[in-house]
Amino acid sequence: MIELFDPLKGERLRVLDETGEAAPGLDPGLPDAELRAIYERMLRTRTADAKALKLQRQGRLGTYPPSRGHEACQVGLASAMGRDDWFFPYFRDLGMYITLGYPLADYYHLWMGNEAGLRTPDGLNIYPIAIPVGSQIPQAVGAGLAAKYRKLRIAVVTTFGDGATSEGDFHEGLNFAGVFRTPNVFVCLNNQFAISVPRARQTAAATIAQKAVAYGFPGVQVDGNDVLAVYAAAREALANARSGQGPTLIEAYTYRMGDHTTSDDAARYRSKEEVQEWERRDPILRFRLYLGKKGLWDEAYEKTVQESAAEFVEKAVAEAEARPAATPEDLFTYTYAAMPPELEAQLAELKAFLGEGRR
Ligand SMILES: Cc1ncc(C[n+]2csc(CCOP(=O)(O)OP(=O)(O)O)c2C)c(N)n1
Ligand SMILES: [Mg+2]
Fold this sequence. Notes:
Blueprint: E1 12-13, H1 32-57, H2 71-80, E2 86-88, H3 94-100, H4 104-111, H5 136-149, E3 156-161, H6 168-180, E4 184-190, E5 193-194, E6 197-198, H7 211-215, E7 219-223, H8 227-242, E8 248-253, H9 272-279, H10 283-293, H11 299-321, H12 330-333, H13 341-355
Helix pairs in contact: 1-2, 1-3, 1-10, 1-11, 2-3, 2-8, 4-11, 5-6
């Protein structure tokens, strides 16, 4: 299906239109139970995201990058992944974590500033979150090459934003992946902004997907507010990676509905009208309309899903807050196996400072 949509011709894969109508021949044909599971993951993601914002405003969570608007990209992609595949995340991936089964309490704990929340539980193949923009891309390619050497039939997925495509790491990673035909799936969540920098200032290319052409492998632009389009493209790209057919670049065309992080005010660089325009394309609304047409959604079902999402989130908050808070030592402990003398001196200075009660 991927090769039917040529990014050089401005073609974009879309299964669902804004009324939730599926294009004939493109619907990935998921069983009803899986469709509902996808909806429930999207709703949990939105609920957990909204809660994180409230916690931050109450001083109970640190700086946080909201995911609202990205639910279709995140849940569609993660729902297509297999247990053995690997994931190299970036910092705005809540729905990926929820879908892959990472404990939400751990995810909150991390954004509460505690390193322990970043320790992936056994059985989940998730690399720590990359905060330096784009740095996860060459790492994912390295993991892809390792999987190839070991003849593992797995895919290695990495996510990143439109801004990351201006980093050298993006180009080095994709070039290497193309040359060595690594089993990578690169997913760019093009949400139109890198903090305040609009997509037009990121690249003069018409699409991000077309950059794959120069690296010698397929690229496809999908409607990132259409969970079935993301799922369909991801499923195919993952299968190609696992079967030795090399990498794929997926550009999920979407919009960041919230601020960049809790330290940002997006109203300073984009208009209300633009945001309202994207509200109409809400990924959850669109999928709900689709489920309704299939007889899989009604008010009673919505109520159950909302209640279960709220319960899921509140339980995670309680669990995260019951854990010990981060200590000043945590800042120093995890950078080197053995702390170098300069850091030891800085830690001693910090402790003396805190000891004097000047916090
Ligand atoms: C190497 C590097 N440069 C700059 C930053 C500061 N920074 C954090 S997020 C961000 C923008 C990222 O935009 P994009 O890749 O589009 O992802 P989005 O935040 O939109 O999801 C920048 C510049 C950083 N974290 N790392
Ligand atoms: Mg962006």
